[in-house]
Amino acid sequence: MAAGPIYQQRSLALTLSGLVLFMPPLVLLFMTDRVLFGVPVVYLWLFGVWLALILAGRVLARRLDRVARGTPKSAPKPARRTGADA
Hints:
By secondary structure, this protein is mainly α. Helices cover about 60% and strands about 5% of the residues. A hairpin with a 2-residue loop joins strand 1 (about 35) and strand 2 (about 40). Helix 1 (about 5-20) packs antiparallel against helix 3 (about 40-70). It starts with a helix and ends in a 17-residue tail after the last helix. Keywords: Membrane, Transmembrane, Transmembrane helix.
């Protein structure tokens, strides 16, 4: 199986998990009077999940782009010329 469809499936799974994590029944579990570091827990949950989804989406997008371009994971960078041979 090619690597491209795997990352496409993972991006779909990320989207669906984001939908589930923001569903009201799950968010209502964190609707309490508790605070952590002076911030209500529900805000920490919402913004924490949002940040995690953004970071995971960035990682998946970079990997999907790399697969689309055909670039290996650890492609060597071209050497920079310095000094007199530049």
